[in-house]
């Protein structure tokens, strides 16, 4: 095996998908704890607070009590190098989350046992399904009373359309929660309430018929045996291929806050979750063990650290390796750049990397030339596909308080658009500047950042636009006529693509009927 193949085999790059409050942050913290990336649990939140305190625009997050940033954390566990890509929890930032999901090899779904399958989880699952991303499931908060577990599994199967294969099974729930039984090993791991901040191993009892089980669990031992029989009949046996194909999810139970069931989850994760796999580019399929570096940008983030007033482009390495100082081709603009100072995010600390392998994320300093979806190579003209832009559902006109700041406004709006936070549109018929977003909060963030980072006082006001569609037409004559007739509804987006801004859905469907040769697209793939 070459070093490249060895490094690939070790990599596990994933994201956590869940509905807010299911326990994603808590679980992240515990995973980092096992990974040795942090000393004590609690640091994730502490670190969040520190970030808030040092960054101006994140003060907004603090005011609103939400987390809108996402970061990358790398840690080692059980011989694997794990990259965890955090995703913003707030639904207004879902585009960011969707794009992050294009950069992972698998996902971990967290479900609150008392809530079952929730709306955000359903949406995120749909996105995972686009690429058949393998999904592991953690059912959380077993220390509280929840739904009947068989029903929860049923709900996952019915609503999310994925088979469940319970790997562990909990002993009791709420106050009667005693531990988990591992169906693979036949071992019972007993819960001890002091699991708290430190990693303490509870007692492990081998074998379901072990009398020690009856001794510590009393009547719950027989309950467990009976339940396991039921589970055997009512659920699917674990099938690695079905998991890797995205058809089946192995299920684990536990309590993130008590650090229980998390180790079993992490052990199985490094054992089963896939290393980087081949990926489609427009020109061809690229396998990770090709020696030449390739990667794509899935996210751009501003001012993570006010000491570095720059923007970082997050690049997912897809093949080959990054070596410090190497020259990379920025395919879209056709330029080669020397990358001396890419960074990684080991438990969120900025460090300069010497090398990075497929599955890793590197951060490139971006001075305005890098956009989401850009591909970097060692020279080949290659373009990774499938990173979506979604038609915004909300629109606002930006009104400048001081007209002399127009240039700064444009600069700010363009940069916000490059980060994928908001999209900008310039109608053909006038000099308006329209912002589009998928959530209201994004407008607030935009106005806040324009003020704090670009010194632009701007207000956003409602505008009568209901939805947007990107226009495609292969016949230039039809396109010309279309542009003439629909002039008042047309605009250019940040990349100068033609967009139809419809004042109503009726208007849109009439236009679609009238112009059968014109395609009205709700997503634009980068
Ligand atoms: P999120 O990132 O998915 O939004 O969820 P987060 O981890 O912030 O957890 C949401 C709430 O659920 C938190 O409580 C957290 O302490 C709690 N929680 C997480 N895991 C468990 C668990 O295993 N059992 C129980 N009983 N609760 C759990 P909070 O009151 O909103 O916040 P905090 O004051 O505890 O930080």
From TrEMBL:
<keyword id="KW-0547">Nucleotide-binding</keyword>
<dbReference type="InterPro" id="IPR053905">
    <property type="entry name" value="EF-G-like_DII"/>
</dbReference>
<dbReference type="Pfam" id="PF16658">
    <property type="entry name" value="RF3_C"/>
</dbReference>
<keyword id="KW-0963">Cytoplasm</keyword>
<keyword id="KW-0342">GTP-binding</keyword>
<dbReference type="GO" id="GO:0016149">
    <property type="term" value="F:translation release factor activity, codon specific"/>
</dbReference>
<dbReference type="InterPro" id="IPR041732">
    <property type="entry name" value="RF3_GTP-bd"/>
</dbReference>
<dbReference type="InterPro" id="IPR032090">
    <property type="entry name" value="RF3_C"/>
</dbReference>
<dbReference type="Pfam" id="PF22042">
    <property type="entry name" value="EF-G_D2"/>
</dbReference>
<dbReference type="InterPro" id="IPR035647">
    <property type="entry name" value="EFG_III/V"/>
</dbReference>
<dbReference type="GO" id="GO:0097216">
    <property type="term" value="F:guanosine tetraphosphate binding"/>
</dbReference>
<feature type="domain" description="Tr-type G">
    <location>
        <begin position="9"/>
        <end position="277"/>
    </location>
</feature>
<dbReference type="GO" id="GO:0005829">
    <property type="term" value="C:cytosol"/>
</dbReference>
<dbReference type="GO" id="GO:0003924">
    <property type="term" value="F:GTPase activity"/>
</dbReference>
<dbReference type="InterPro" id="IPR031157">
    <property type="entry name" value="G_TR_CS"/>
</dbReference>
<dbReference type="InterPro" id="IPR004548">
    <property type="entry name" value="PrfC"/>
</dbReference>
<dbReference type="InterPro" id="IPR038467">
    <property type="entry name" value="RF3_dom_3_sf"/>
</dbReference>
<dbReference type="GO" id="GO:0016150">
    <property type="term" value="F:translation release factor activity, codon nonspecific"/>
</dbReference>
<dbReference type="GO" id="GO:0005525">
    <property type="term" value="F:GTP binding"/>
</dbReference>
<dbReference type="Pfam" id="PF00009">
    <property type="entry name" value="GTP_EFTU"/>
</dbReference>
<comment type="function">
    <text>Increases the formation of ribosomal termination complexes and stimulates activities of RF-1 and RF-2. It binds guanine nucleotides and has strong preference for UGA stop codons. It may interact directly with the ribosome. The stimulation of RF-1 and RF-2 is significantly reduced by GTP and GDP, but not by GMP.</text>
</comment>
<protein>
    <recommendedName>
        <fullName>Peptide chain release factor 3</fullName>
    </recommendedName>
</protein>
<feature type="binding site">
    <location>
        <begin position="18"/>
        <end position="25"/>
    </location>
    <ligand>
        <name>GTP</name>
    </ligand>
</feature>
<dbReference type="InterPro" id="IPR009000">
    <property type="entry name" value="Transl_B-barrel_sf"/>
</dbReference>
<dbReference type="InterPro" id="IPR027417">
    <property type="entry name" value="P-loop_NTPase"/>
</dbReference>
<keyword id="KW-0648">Protein biosynthesis</keyword>
<comment type="similarity">
    <text>Belongs to the TRAFAC class translation factor GTPase superfamily. Classic translation factor GTPase family. PrfC subfamily.</text>
</comment>
<dbReference type="InterPro" id="IPR005225">
    <property type="entry name" value="Small_GTP-bd"/>
</dbReference>
<dbReference type="GO" id="GO:0006449">
    <property type="term" value="P:regulation of translational termination"/>
</dbReference>
<dbReference type="InterPro" id="IPR000795">
    <property type="entry name" value="T_Tr_GTP-bd_dom"/>
</dbReference>
<feature type="binding site">
    <location>
        <begin position="140"/>
        <end position="143"/>
    </location>
    <ligand>
        <name>GTP</name>
    </ligand>
</feature>
<feature type="binding site">
    <location>
        <begin position="86"/>
        <end position="90"/>
    </location>
    <ligand>
        <name>GTP</name>
    </ligand>
</feature>
